[in-house]
From TrEMBL:
UniProt keyword list: Membrane, Signal, Transmembrane, Transmembrane helix
UniProt-listed SMART domains: G5
Protein known as: G5 domain-containing protein
Domain G5 as annotated: residue spans: 143-223
Highest taxon, organism lineage: Bacteria
Segments passing through the bilayer: 21-44
Top-level taxonomy: Bacteria, Bacillati, Actinomycetota, Actinomycetes, Bifidobacteriales
The keyword Cytoplasm is assigned to this record: no
Source organism: Bifidobacterium aquikefiri
Keyword match S-adenosyl-L-methionine: no
InterPro entries (UniProt xref): DUF348 (IPR007137), G5_dom (IPR011098), Lysozyme-like_dom_sf (IPR023346)
Pfam families per the UniProt record, alphabetical: DUF348, G5
Length: 347
């Protein structure tokens, strides 16, 4: 993910293991009277902001039990994590007890925050403070919606198969180094009911609960030396891995592979990209962290991807184009970004 972060509150589960401190906000408080008229189009941590895990870095995974401070979030933004800029502001919104951070520029009133977060009120909703109240980063907006409940569901993130060439094995032989295991994507939605039936479902957050473990197969390239008379044991050359290749899984990865090759990067770079975005977003175009990071590359805020296309909120090709540009500009290559993520927990 591209780095991001937010306020002190106990978190609601978010992002990747590698993210040691993630910004999320989560406390609930009483809901004062408010104003009327809003409906919730999609509680994606506003398409323009979604975050990752870690107090100073975001990623679509692991945030359970973590707490972060406003200073942590501001520090992450000032560092430019996830493509954010120092002009980016954030405001915490609590909807039926669940928190998320809305990121954007030029916030003035409560209404401007809700607009930026693509949050609309329904006739029976209450919001506090009122829509015309001026906001700062210390403002907490609370929305209460009747006949609604928060529901969570899990879906599988497929693992990839990575082939590593190594001269530690004789040419023509293979060995399974690591068995693959599917990951888990957790999606939390606000379900509104009418007459006892679900009338609408809006995604509140969707993040990598457990990143997939890729299957790794060693491909032998070494030469076996002839057996000597004093020993029946064959010897091989020293262990080394020369390169890797990964088979794309799904449409998004196929698009990414084509773009990686077009940029002149190697198959090993594609392997690094797969590992990075498996952990950041599970390659989901709608991966949304309550604290702000969004999409396959976990841009912060997500609206930054509009520079690659107006369909940035749902189009994999657009998100990948932006994400690879971000990686090229900040880390030279996907393996550079992966190395940074491995050492710091964010990219």
């Amino acid at each position: 993910m591209v780095s991001h972060r937010r306020e002190r509150v106990s978190v609601f589960k978010v992002l990747t293991r590698r993210q040691r401190t993630r910004l999320i906000a989560g406390a609930a408080a009483l809901i004062l009277a408010g104003t009327a008229g809003i409906v919730s189009r999609g509680f994606y941590s506003e398409p323009e902001a979604q975050a990752k895990t870690q107090v100073t870095s975001y990623s679509a995974t692991q945030m359970q039990g973590l707490e972060v401070s406003r200073d942590s979030v501001r520090k992450a933004i000032n560092e430019g994590q996830g493509g954010s800029s120092t002009g980016t502001a954030y405001v915490k919104v609590i909807i039926n007890g669940k928190s998320k951070l809305i990121l954007g520029d030029n916030f003035t009133t409560v209404k401007s925050v809700l607009d930026a977060g693509d949050i609309t009120l329904e006739p029976d909703d209450t919001v506090a403070p009122g829509l015309n109240t001026k906001v700062t980063e210390s403002t907490v907006i609370q929305i209460s919606r009747s006949n609604s409940e928060i529901q969570s569901s899990e879906s599988e993130i497929p693992f990839n198969t990575i082939e590593e060439k190594t001269d530690s094995l004789p040419a023509g032989t293979t060995k399974v180094k690591t068995e693959g295991k599917a990951g888990v994507m957790e999606t939390t939605s606000l379900i509104t009911k009418v007459g006892g039936k679900n009338s609408s479902s809006n995604i509140f957050a969707s993040y990598v609960k457990n990143a997939p473990v890729n299957k790794v197969i060693l491909i032998g390239t070494g030469k076996v030396q002839a057996t000597t008379s004093s020993s029946s044991a064959a010897t091989t050359t020293a262990v080394s891995v020369s390169s890797t290749s990964t088979t794309p899984v799904g449409t998004a990865q196929s698009i990414a592979h084509s773009q990686v090759v077009a940029r002149g990067w190697s198959e090993s770079d594609f392997t690094c990209l797969v590992q990075l975005w498996n952990r950041e977003s599970g390659w989901s175009t709608t991966a949304a962290n309550p604290s702000g990071a969004y999409g396959i590359p976990q841009a912060l805020p997500g609206s930054k991807m509009a520079s690659a296309g107006s369909d940035w909120a749902t189009n994999a090709a657009t998100q990948i184009t932006w994400g690879l540009g971000y990686i090229a500009g900040g880390y030279t290559s996907p393996c550079g970004a992966w190395s940074h993520s491995e050492s710091t927990g964010w990219y």
